[in-house]
Amino acid sequence: MIKFDLINPTHIAFGEGSIAELSRLVPQDAKVLLLYGGGSIMRNGVHDQVRKALGNRAVTEFGGVEVNPHYETLLRAAATARDADSDYVLGVGGGSVIDAAKFLAYLVTAEGDDPWDDLKAKRFPQHILPVGAVLTLPATGSESNPVSVITSVKRHLKYPFSNPAARPAIAIMDPSTMASLDRRQLGNGVVDAVTHVLEQYATTSTNTPVQMGYSETLLEVLFEWGPKLLEENTPEARENVMWAANQALNGLIAAGVTEDWSTHYIGHALGALYDIDHARTLTPLMPAVFRYKLRDKQQMLARYARRVWKVSEPDDAKAADRAVALTEDFFRRMGLPVTTSELAPVVISADDVVEHIAALGQMPLGEGRDIGPGEVRAILRLAR
Ligand code: NZQ
Ligand code: ZN
User: Fold this and answer.
1) pLDDT attached to residue 253
2) Rounded-to-integer distance, Cα 343 and Cα 118, Å
């Protein structure tokens, strides 16, 4: 097991009706900056529930956070928060809004008009605002992790800022908020969570039986309940997927293991360059990454095939190959693309993708730090 440090202080209130818990969990005297996205919370009743629970606390609202949130928009949100003297950020929405709320928590107190470079270099302000999250789309785990994936339109860059101090103090997870999600967003969410588990699992085998077993359970739950969620969107399916997606990226299964975020980092480049839904950048790439690195990942992929997919193939190479095909098939069944040609009319420029990853200092990728520019190009060729 690799030495690790694990802390997750997010207070989670889970279950139907839990938005009302805001009245107990947000400090009475908080001056709240309520951040939201394109307006889904106005149409599905979530906004009304939030305002009711906040009671007579001072609230300033800032809407219009984009899918794949823009740094430039958040600079405006920070100015609004400063003008209103806000001392608490409440993000209400999916991963984009919650990422934005966490980023805003330190953007408000950051020095200068354009602190992107300082924040990217982890020069975070000492004092940041506390954050609350009301989750309406299970996918990213953002509601209880330290990451904010933010796009600078001016720079054409999408970067995962990570600041432990920005982990939400509270996360409200009410599965009934998922009733208004369409099939596309439900499919995106389930599949994003699956890739999160696999990037912390399908790497090298180490002595981490607890983490491996929990990852396998999360995958089984997502494979069983994801399709049911898409077909019927029942309360049982909602709560199982919402909880699994949270556990997939809250730090727990990453403890002590080797990780490979190459699918996500290449996917973020596609998101920045072509503005594609996050999950749809991942599904064409992950099978290609696995096939390209089949030998290095063979042991874990074979274990995944046998334990999760119940494949009874004794040969490790064949079992690993089967696991990749079954994963790809699942992505397809959930309605996501499995080749980059399906992203048409987008045409991917490998040069631009490589440049994006290099500009962010993320190269080399992979658990063995052996995926450089040539390997990224080869993966993109395999993903076509
Ligand atoms: O903007 P609104 O109007 O709220 O509509 C959203 C948006 O159009 C809608 N939606 C959300 N909840 C809804 C709803 N519509 C109806 N009913 C509801 N209950 O769904 C659309 C997509 O929302 P978004 O927040 O963009 O989706 P998601 O949760 O998939 O978040 C994607 C973002 O998270 C980042 C991605 O890169 C992307 O920017 N990620 C964050 C991570 C993290 N913090 O750890 C890790 C992930 O790997 C990922 O990179
Ligand atoms: Zn993701």
Assistant:
1) 98
2) 34
Q: Please give the pLDDT value at position 153.
A: 95
Encode pLDDT of 213-260 as tens digits: 999 999 999 999 999 999 999 999 999 999 999 999 999 999 999 999
DSSP 180-232: G--HHHHHHHHHHHHHHHHHHHSS---S-HHHHHHHHHHHHHHHHHHHHHHHH
What's the gap in Å between 201 CA and the centre of ligand 2? 14
> Tokens at residue 29, please?
């005297």
Ligand nearest to the CA of 173: 1
| Short-list 90, 66, 53, 243, CA closest to 158 | 66
Question: In angstroms, what is the span from residue 297 Cα to ligand 1's centroid?
Answer: 30
Q: How far is CA 50 from the centre of its chain?
A: 23
Q: What is the reported pTM?
A: 0.98
Tokens of 84: 């209103």
From CA 98, how far away is CA 110, in angstroms rounded? 19
CA-to-CA distance for 195 and 282, rounded, in angstroms? 8
- The residue nearest atom 20 of ligand 1, judged by CA position, is 185
How far does the chain reach from its first CA to its final CA, in angstroms?
Answer: 36
Structure tokens at 310: 């119940």
Average pLDDT over residues 184-197: 98
Nearest alpha-carbon partner for 321 in 357, 348, 297, 354: 297
